[in-house]
Amino acid sequence: KNQVEQSPQSLIILEGKNCTLQCNYTVSPFSNLRWYKQDTGRGPVSLTIMTFSENTKSNGRYTATLDADTKQSSLHITASQLSDSASYICVVSGDGGGADGLTFGKGTHLIIQP
Amino acid sequence: SQTIHQWPATLVQPVGSPLSLECTVEGTSNPNLYWYRQAAGRGLQLLFYSVGIGQISSEVPQNLSASRPQDRQFILSSKKLLLSDSGFYLCAWRSGLNTEAFFGQGTRLTVV
Fold it and tell me: What DSSP designation does B84 have?
């Protein structure tokens, strides 16, 4: 069964600190992995996309990594800001997923405190 | 550029009343359209998807239905709402499988 597990479920850090969010998946066959940011009460917005051959990709203060062998991905946030408070959802795309080809993680709820 | 509009943003409806949530996409043609429900602490659940006008596929049996009267319009409906229909509903579009999903702003539905 295709699954995407994210950890931690929630995280609280002080403004300016770094943090790393984890995503483990069992989706097969694998096409790509995306990290989405979802502000409270809003729709998710894509941050990064990782394909099978990519190990690292950055988008400003966000850096995603992918280890296709161990089926793990991480999202590292550097020098966190209050606006980073949101849920971060890992989404794996592959033909083995649902009818939409997507398997969603439950998200990590990140709170940045001043 | 492509944009997706979803409305209303919030809705409070009594049990037994009808529902109509609308989603429209601009700047693209023949998109794949999706309705999801997001419950607290759970991942997004696919409710309906459509690959063309009048073509609707349902993923889970429920009290809801969907329609696609125009190429870039997707509507989520119910004839009689249940308390269990409360939740956060998201519309999304994609150009094809394995492509990025673009989400609307969501509708917070509360059935009272």
Answer: G
Residue A74 falls in which region: left (phi positive, over 0), alpha (psi -120 to 50) or beta:
beta
State the pLDDT at residue A96: 59
* Interface contact flag, A98 B101, Cβ < 8 Å: no
**Residue of chain B whose Cα is closest to the Cα of A29:** B98
A82: phi then psi, degrees, rounded to nearest 5: -55, -35
Residue in this structure with the two tokens 């995503």, named with its chain if needed: A23
pLDDT digit string (tens) for A52-77? 888 999 999 999 999 999 999 999 99
Band of residue B96 on the pLDDT scale cut at 50, 70, 90? confident
Distance CA A110, CA B84 (A): 27
Q: Which residue has the tokens 């161990």?
A: A70
Between B59, B101, B106, which is nearest A41 by CB?
B106
Q: Which pairing describes strands A102-104 and A86-93: parallel, antiparallel, or unpaired?
A: antiparallel
Q: How far is CA B22 from the centre of its chain?
A: 7
Task: Please state, as a whole number, how many other Cβ atoms lie within 10 Å of the Cβ of residue A72.
Answer: 15
